[in-house]
């Protein structure tokens, strides 16, 4: 369950930190602290969205003992600054469920999922954060539909949020949650600033096997740098992969080899060979792979 944007104006402003302190409720204490009460419904306008960023979710779940991996609902509410498990606390639980970081059945206790354990305490934290980030449908759609390692205009992103995601109110708040979550997942270049004129998303990290191989070689000899937008378009067109622009990241190796030739008449020709790397995040690996190979072969490229 996500919430409507009009319900979160009191939840804190940009620049505030801490999932516990920024929106703790001032609710009179009662003897019934175990009962979970749903928040009061109100007229909604526009599509709702996740209540917590991924970074705030990480902070919240660290209140749960790393050995027990679960906590009663009442204790968890108290740990997050709520006097009883109701109101905004329930929106936080919904956010944790959206990221698939707690088990969906949590009437009496909040229990970490294997994904949450990996994100908090596992060896593959980066991969787990990326998975959790993409579990949020709105974040995933926005991330997939914008090119990686490109200067995406903030205005284009805002227009997309309104038109494609249906989020009418609290657009800045949604953008902040998206950027903070993308930064936490390692999918954002630069700070998570909602006032920046451009937003540069990064391609999702590849498999851990490739990362392990990278650490075994000289990084200075295999380092890649991001190309400018104009160069990216040219390389994708040359490779027959223009249709994958929205899902591709193009980089060029910072070092390479050269061939020097001396022709008749004393003319010197230097050919520089610097590998280009195109990383595509396919929507459907099985169907996209043969299409990619066919498109490259039509351009005269061979394996």
Description:
The protein is an alpha+beta fold and 303 residues long. The chain folds into two domains: 5-201, no CATH class; 221-298, no CATH class. It is 37% helix and 13% strand. The protein has twelve helices and ten strands. The protein has helices at residues 54-61, 73-79, 88-98, 114-121, 125-134, 137-145, 154-163, 171-184, 208-215, 219-222, 229-238, 285-298; strands spanning 70-72, 109-111, 152-153, 188-189, 198-201, 224-226, 248-253, 257-262, 268-273, 276-280. The protein has a three-stranded antiparallel β-sheet. A hairpin with a 5-residue loop joins strand 8 and strand 9 (268-273). Helix 4 crosses helix 5. The chain starts with 53 loop residues before the first helix and ends in a 5-residue tail after the last helix. Residues 1-17, 26-35, 37-45 and 207-221 have low confidence and may be disordered.
* Share in helix: 25-40%
Oligomer: single chain
What structural class do the secondary elements suggest?
alpha+beta
Tally of helical segments: 12
What ranges have pLDDT less than 50 throughout 5 or more consecutive residues? 1-17, 26-35, 37-45, 207-221
Which whole number gives the mean pLDDT?
Answer: 78
